[in-house]
Amino acid sequence: MLSEQGDTVFDPFCGSGTVTTEAVRLGRHAIGFDINPLALLIAEVKATPIMPQRLWQALAQIESNLRRLGEVEPPKFANIDYWFKPEVQKQLARLKAAIDALEGEAVKKFSLIVFSRVVREASNTRPNEFKLFRLPPEKLKRHNPDVFRLFHQRFAECIGIMSDWWREVGDSLLKPQLRLHDARQPFPLPSESVDLLLTSPPYGDARTTVAYGQFSRLSLQWLGLWREDLDRISLGGHHRSMKVLVPTLKEALEAIAKVCPKRAQEVEAFYADLYDCLRNIVPIVKRDGFAVFVIANRKVRGIKLPTDKIIVEMLPEFEFVVSLPRQIPNKRMPLRNSPSNIPGETDTTMLEEHIVILQKKTVLHTSAPAFHQLRLLERKGRYQGQ
Fold this sequence. Notes:
Layout: E1 8-11, H1 18-25, E2 29-34, H2 37-46, H3 52-68, H4 80-83, H5 86-100, H6 105-122, H7 137-142, H8 147-169, E3 177-180, E4 194-199, H9 212-223, H10 247-259, H11 261-281, E5 285-296, E6 299-300, E7 303-304, H12 307-314, E8 318-327, E9 336-337, E10 347-348, E11 352-360, H13 369-385
Parallel strand pairs: 1-2, 1-4, 2-3, 4-5
Antiparallel strand pairs: 5-11, 6-7, 8-11, 9-10
Helix pairs in contact: 2-6, 3-5, 3-8, 5-6, 6-8, 6-9, 10-11
């Protein structure tokens, strides 16, 4: 609705590439930046249609390579013995060597993404968690995965997904531009080159919300892409203050500081980083272009942080159009947590997101939300008409 064929769509926190993939599927030029190398690899694979027959051939080649390979030395990284049983390490090392021997960049990257999933499933970590927790002793004793069988299973599942994708688009897709980049640094994009910015920034600092670095750490270590400071360089990773506080954030920080000054400082550090990212967005979006943020409002010490409103206040160059509620799907975070760390005291976590739609102001008309909402309705009518 907010872009047309041939437009440029940009996601500065592209993660595993949902926005960039959908953009190229719809004939848009897609650009995606992220700070996590695994996310970018997934985004690239997701947006690269491969003929299913080539993938079956790649799987057969990997299994042939495995039969020829002897023992392969596992990689050396901290706590590998804690997270992987000795036999699992040997199997993963042989499997990685068999994949590395493949020819063809696209099928090799596809295979590495399946491998990265198997790494997590074969590890000693508890399933369905973002943070790293080891299986309890009784479950760990029974945990003896067959890495090769698991890889074959997961590879076949992913071929099924790719088959649907290939039937829909063939090899006709535009390639997204994907780049490792810290959104707090100016974007290497021309001024006013983006028609639609569509993103879901982090909801809070990695230590207290979603630890993206922890979630991908084991896979990145096996792929040779890990950097120790991944969570520390994420938003809110270092304590810093904001020079200018927008009113809604100022009010929330004061309320948190009354309960716990230290937590207020940590929250401020996250928003200081988010502010830098948002300011980098301003020059690259075209006048009259849209910026859309999918964001949830987390709680700190029982006090809700209205990030949807804070983002609007941080971007005065944009006019607020509308905010749409959305239930968070496939939620890995617990429904409740303990903000005070006192046994028995719990509170709800983030259950709902907001899709906040803004439009960059022009000098050609008086800024008014009603005007922008009418424009949005016009676009919706054209979209539904198609």
